[in-house]
Design a protein that fits this description.
Elements: E1 5-6, E2 16-20, E3 26-33, E4 37-42, E5 45-52, E6 58-66, H1 75-82, E7 94-104, E8 109-117, E9 120-132, E10 141-151, E11 168-178
């Protein structure tokens, strides 16, 4: 049995467009509800591309999420979140994330980008760590894990008072990217 290894510091990555495998990605969120409990959920990734420059450093990221697929495990709440009071997925079915500010840090990268929700652009900062697949893996890949937080009001989601739905949303994403040579 082989295991992926975690990279302690950013290292050279093959230049080109690294493409996400949506089936191997997860995007989860958590937010306090009624100040008492935490509601968690997922939003499906439609696509993601990480452009790696000629020097082997991530230069930009673009990802799209399917807002219509939001899932908290509660049908009524999910319908409410898709409705016009919250995400208005009938009008804005896609949430996008774009970043061009990617800085190496001690463990991997700090990514500063823009999340677009309901036509509103808001800043998001993510801490990203990277694992590399074992050498015997048939297709070169990189597994990334990103964490951050988002002020839902800055994203234009202002329907409920903070007492009912917390203002800050914790984000956690796991991405599997395939290298340009593997595509």
């Amino acid at each position: 049995m082989t295991h992926a290894t975690t990279i302690g510091t950013p290292s050279y990555v093959r230049p080109g467009e690294w493409i996400a495998d949506p089936a191997a990605c997860s995007l989860t969120f958590a937010v306090r509800s009624f100040g008492l409990r935490t509601v968690t959920g997922q939003i499906p990734l439609t696509s993601a591309v990480v452009h790696v420059d000629a020097d082997g450093h991530p230069a930009s990221i673009r990802a799209e999420l399917d807002a219509r697929g939001i899932d908290t495990g509660n049908k009524r709440r999910d319908q409410d979140l898709r409705g016009r009071r919250f995400l208005a997925t009938g009008r804005w079915p896609v949430i996008t994330f774009e970043a061009g500010d990617i800085q190496p840090n001690e463990t991997a990268w700090t990514v500063v980008g823009t999340l677009t929700v309901k036509g509103t652009h808001c800043p998001v900062r993510l801490e990203v760590t990277r694992s590399v697949a074992p050498a015997d893996d048939q297709a070169p890949r990189a597994d990334l894990h990103a964490t951050g937080s988002l002020d839902r009001r800055s994203a234009g989601v202002t329907a409920a008072p903070a007492l009912l739905v917390g203002r800050m949303i914790s984000l956690s994403q796991a991405f599997r990217l395939r290298s340009p040579a593997a595509i």
